Amino acid sequence: MYLFVTEREAPRFNYYPEKRLENKISRPKISVVVTARNEEQTIGTCLDSLASQTYGNMEIIVVDDSSTDRTAEIVARSLVSNPKLRLVKAGAKPDGWVGKSWPCWRGYEEALNSDYLLFVDADSTFDRTVIELSVLYSEENSIDAFSLSPRVKLHTIWANAVLPLISGAINLLYPMRQVNDRKNERAYVFGTYVLVRKNVYERVGGHMKVRDQLVEDAALARLIKSAGYNLRIERGPDLLTTQWESDLRAIFHGLERIASSSIKTYGLLAILNAVLLFFLIIYPVIFILSVTLFHAFSTTFLVGTVACVLNVLVFLSLSANELYGISGKRGPGILLYVLGGIIFIVAIVTTSIKVAKGKNLYWKGQGYKQAVERPLKT
Questions:
Q1: Residue 165 lies in a domain
Q2: Do 197 and 341 share a domain, yes or no?
Q3: Can you tell me the distance from the alpha carbon of 305 to that of 292, in angstroms, rounded to the nearest whole number?
Q4: Which of 17, 81, 101, 203 could be 21's S-S partner, Cβ–Cβ 3.0 to 4.6 Å?
Q5: Which of 5-9, 59-63, 95-99 is predicted with the least confidence, judged by mean pLDDT?
Q6: Is residue 257 part of a domain?
Q7: Among the listed residues 222, 155, 165, 174, the one whose alpha carbon sits nearest the alpha carbon of residue 341
Q8: Could you tell me the pLDDT band of residue 134, with boundaries at 50, 70 and 90?
Q9: What is the pTM of this model?
Q10: Are 231 and 273 in a shared domain?
Q11: Is residue 324, in this structure, part of any structural domain at all?
Q12: Cβ(74)–Cβ(39) under 8 Å?
């Protein structure tokens, strides 16, 4: 019930200023930083959607993070027809930098005379009005950092099984109403689309400050909000779309990366989380199947069966709600929530062990050691 309430309260971005408002609001310069590593399948579409934006005072900086495919070649071809576009080589990551923070920082270093930085992913596409509306909205409401949740394209059973659980966990831990409350310490952004005032980014230290965090976007959000700046997130499925990993290996590595931000050390807490998920998601299904297969229909088992059936119905309803919310899809994908639960539990356990033992976690095919999260100070 709490999850349904938090999602119903989540604001949906629907800012459409009247002409008289548009004329009164300044048009600050925006540097769009596109981080790309091996994105040859999606970078072209992404750049086309950015080139078609209605907002004029902007530049597009593509930071190639040591791609081994045709990403840089595709971007180079786009340079001919798009004078606002620049291609930057990230180069080797310095010691202590992990994940996406380094290419984001390199993009910032190339963003000269800008008022805002907009960090986006290369596997995303954008409605032609999204940047203009976001900037005007931020200017009119004195927002320092603004992020939109995207519509997510899911292509495999693995993605359909796992992502509804991830979405539900995020909505439970970071309700938009609380994130948008300046008196509440919870902070979160969606890495697909992060708009931040450049002077605010510089004051808090930007990605340099969170360079050892694999979930750099959430760490940056906490940094910005803890410094007293106005952070806001809203739902934007009609304005931007992103791809999600398809194969199980990549999905599992992505899940480990997400889990690493909340797992401090290997120990009792991680095991308890895994056990709790087992009894909430998997055990009820096992109980129902056992009673059915062995015809154990006594009064005692009947009560347990009813409870487990209700549990399954609740999770099916939650899965349907999350699946529709993130992908706009309805259908049999909700039946995969048990499979997603198993993958989720395994990821929690393996991540806690890897973090504790200093083993690599993977992002875009590269291995990094996740630092134990420390208090973020400006």
A1: no
A2: no
A3: 9
A4: 17
A5: 5-9
A6: no
A7: 165
A8: very high
A9: 0.89
A10: no
A11: yes
A12: no
